Amino acid sequence: MLRIRGLDALQKPFPNTVLTIGNFDSVHLGHQKIFQKVVSRAKELRGTSMVMTFDPHPAKILTPEKNVKLLTTTVEKERLIRDIGLDVILYVRFSRKFSHILPDEFIRDILVDRINVKEIFVGSQYVFGRNKRGTVELLRKRGKKYGFTVSAVRKATVHGQVVSSSLIRALLIKGAVDEAAVYLGREYSIEGKVIRGKGRGKSLLDIPTANITTPVEITPKEGVYAVRVGIKGKTYKAVANIGRNPTFGNADVSYEVHLLNFSGNIMGELLRVYFIKRIRGEKTFRDITGLQKQIWKDIQEAKEILKR
Predict the structure, then answer these.
(1) Low-confidence residues of the chain, pLDDT below 50?
(2) Which domains does the chain have, with CATH numbers?
(3) Active site amino acids
(4) What count of other Cβ atoms lies within 10 Å of the Cβ of residue 5?
């Protein structure tokens, strides 16, 4: 997939561009539905499938006080979009100045003059331009003038529930990773680099753990999870703990994974942690022995969950 950063980097239009526009945080089932239509139509036209997205996320600029936590990093979002088979991802730098662009200017100057779009797929509630005055209906009217067509894709639903990033965010915040996976169409995962921790796992508990640092803005609720961990193309069953280790009185949140049936030095390696199911919340134990017994119980429960 070709990555283009900024409208000025568009040297010339691509042939028969089929475009979708949006933030696409989480790349959930609704987003995937749109992407698949774009890819399919571009193949029919022997054209180019393109995603236009924004960096930074508009919420970071327009409503910073809401402190919206993004579900995917830019790198992760791009990886997920690439895996679906899009040809081009175009990053448009979002700013307050850009937010003031009039809908007709956006259509004429960007969609027509710079991209030379042939077809556009957007969500049925898509709005754009200054004060969100641009609508799907306006796009269709201007499409007749400039020679492009517009398709509005209905929101995806699962068991009658509309799929949305806000829903997935709420599920992760309460630790319901198995429910979030239903709407994502995949297990929620985070990537992180193995760093040096406190060393308690091996020395005090005889249960070695890999501590990771991750750039993600939102992680599942603090607690213990059955997970799978990807390392160098291989996947291992594991148990993960997100939290402050209250038994030891830690102040900072840490991310630790204990890989089952694994031995080796992975310091500095990149891990991807796939969250399968929450086992329990964090607890404070009277002593190390109590904590150790609980961890072994967690490991056994994780094995049963992962076996299923």
Answers:
(1) 203
(2) 2-162 (3.40.50.620), 188-307 (2.40.30.30)
(3) 256
(4) 12
